[in-house]
Design a protein that fits this description.
four-stranded mixed sheet, disordered C terminus, 11 strands, StiP_N, 16% strand, alpha/beta, 11 helices, 295 residues
Length: 295
């Protein structure tokens, strides 16, 4: 929505905007694609996102659109620390609000719902609507606050865009290479348990069973909230010199990627049986923490 407002402010364009679901390992909402093709020229459709992590969704989108050659499979993002797209605002790794505030800064909508008992093969993907958080919703406030500063930065932003357009923006996939290296070095052997970037690291600490946090040596106040959350969860923070991101969150390899726990440190020291019980209890605790964080 901010991109849409900026297009209107800076270029006088009124662009339609839609949300479309894509799930790693499950693909894209094909019903939504058909709707887009029926109502717009697919060649005019641009897929956008907030940021790239290691580039998993970038690859998923490319694969999902292979049967639909009229759509451009490239994705444009605000931040590309993973260096896996060629259209971006910056490659700096910074925290996008939706990474930690989730639905309360995203119109109270968050998470795809894709259950066979709720969503048929020809239906749009479902979405979770958090109506109980309506009193804490700051989506409009966020959009209005940022939009109010457009005029102050318009000249500099357009100049920066011209300079950026003249540079070599070829994706290097440096982030994906770093994730594969970290997965091997730490004995995880599963890139899905390595969550790179400050946004994904924040989500690991809020939602998952965190194991370790790797922080770029010398990273300053931008990681204060990560250090605080890590301290609260009892998770060690290790400094590293060769990260293309400001930080990387490692999900505990003993648990599935969907697990949520209250104390990653306890998980790491408990016996398997005790840990399983702790993890079951932690699921409820993790949900509570996430709700509190969203508020």
């Amino acid at each position: 929505m901010l991109m849409r407002r900026w297009a209107r402010h800076a270029h006088g364009l009124d662009l339609p905007h839609y949300a479309i679901s894509i799930v790693r390992g499950r693909g894209i909402d094909t019903a939504a694609l058909r709707w887009l093709a029926d109502h717009h020229d697919p060649a005019d459709v641009v897929f956008v996102d907030g940021w790239t992590g290691k580039g998993a969704i970038t690859r998923e989108l490319s694969d999902a659109l292979a049967p639909y050659p009229d759509f451009d499979p490239r994705i444009a993002v605000l931040a590309d620390p993973g260096r896996c797209v060629d259209t971006y605002g910056t490659r700096d790794d910074f925290l996008v609000p939706s990474a930690c505030l989730n639905s309360t800064v995203s119109g109270l909508i968050s998470r795809t719902v894709l259950r066979a008992d709720l969503v048929g093969p020809n239906d749009f993907h479902g979405a979770k609507y958090y109506r109980e958080l309506a009193g804490s919703d700051v989506s409009g406030h966020f959009l209005d606050t940022v939009s109010a500063r457009f005029a102050e930065v318009a000249e500099a932003a357009l100049a920066d865009a011209e300079r950026l357009a003249a540079t070599d923006r070829t994706p290097t996939w440096e982030g994906w290479a770093a994730v594969e290296r970290i997965s091997q070095e730490y004995g995880i052997h599963d890139v899905n348990l390595v969550k790179p970037g400050v946004g994904e690291t924040t989500r690991v600490l809020l939602r998952r069973v965190p194991w370790k946090i790797l922080a770029q040596r010398g990273a300053g106040a931008d990681l204060d909230h990560v250090r605080l959350l890590a301290e609260q969860r009892g998770v060690p923070v290790e400094e590293a010199d060769d990260l293309p991101y400001t930080c990387v969150g490692l999900i505990h390899p003993r648990y599935t990627r969907g697990a949520t726990g209250a104390d990653g440190k306890t998980v790491g020291t408990a016996s398997d049986k005790t840990a399983d019980k702790a993890n079951t209890a932690g699921i409820a605790a993790g949900r509570h923490e996430r709700t509190v964080a969203a508020r």
